[in-house]
């Protein structure tokens, strides 16, 4: 008798797990190709494209479904993507927040709160069909404070680094526009430093965010440093921010300065420097373009 119990129970479980075909909902799909940063429609900082270089690697999608009072999270997706959604009908609005790799770390991709979310209103999802939003655009939020930027364009700005070569008319080599800077490091040299000739003197609350953005292409390893003195006296100190590994193509980096800034008790006066570590003992060149410090309260 006991031998019959197990097969009977298994049969009952299988029957309970079976559902009719019409119980399954055919999903709709949302597709997004990517994100581009563009100048705002009014009060643009500059029309130079280098100011708006970016690397938005993923996005977070929220939906206001018609008839619901709550906001639903669709998910966080690497770009480009197409994702199924178990909903059909009208969506009052989709809010899509651009996300980036913070300090080059793929595992840290929160939305970048200097960028405006893209909002798509009054769209309809149809089962089996794809709502293709293509490439979306964003711009910097109006309360973002640009504390310093240097695009290295011959018609726009003067060089603000020391010990570098400024390539003023090299559109084929620059990340954008016609200019960039480079630092050549011989194979016999390591820890070659060059400095951003700008002292930042800014009063920001400790809760504020502070980032360094830049485009870079380098043959060798280099490190970025922050310099400041402690609030309660002492000489200027140097703390490492992050290491930048070699890359054979231009890459846009979003480098969080707030953690290092906390070492200086958020002293409002600070500066930045770069040093070629050259751990492999080979000659190489560090290239930089479109450097800027941005923050907001």
Structure explained in plain terms:
The protein has 297 residues and is mainly β. The chain has 2 domains: 25-138, Immunoglobulin-like; 145-296, Sandwich (Jelly Rolls). It contains 2 helices and 20 strands. The chain has helices spanning 2-17, 258-262; strands at 28-32, 34-37, 58-65, 72-78, 81-85, 89-99, 118-125, 130-132, 135-138, 145-150, 165-167, 180-185, 192-195, 200-201, 209-218, 222-228, 237-244, 251-256, 269-276, 284-296. Strands 10, 11, 12, 15, 18 and 20 form a 6-stranded antiparallel sheet that branches. Strands 13, 14, 16, 17 and 19 form a 5-stranded antiparallel sheet that branches. A 4-stranded antiparallel sheet has the order 4-3-6-7, with no helix packed on it. Strand 3 (58-65) and strand 4 (72-78) form a beta hairpin. The longest helix is centred in the N-terminal third of the chain and has 16 residues, at 2-17. The N and C termini lie far apart (75 Å). Mean pLDDT is 87; it is low at 7-17.
Beta-sheet strand percentage? 35-45%
Q: What's the total count of β strands?
A: 20
CATH class division of the largest domain: Mainly Beta
Regions with little confidence, pLDDT below 50 for 5+ residues: 7-17
Radius of gyration: 25 Å
Give the overall silhouette: elongated
Task: State mean pLDDT (0 to 100 scale).
Answer: 87
Assign the CATH architecture of the largest domain: Sandwich
Largest sheet: 6 strands, antiparallel
User: How many individual helices?
Assistant: 2
Class per helix and strand makeup: mainly beta
Order of helices and strands: HEEEEEEEEEEEEEEEEEEHEE
Give the proportion of residues in helices. under 10%
End-to-end gap: 75 Å
CATH topology of the largest domain: Jelly Rolls
Number of domains: 2
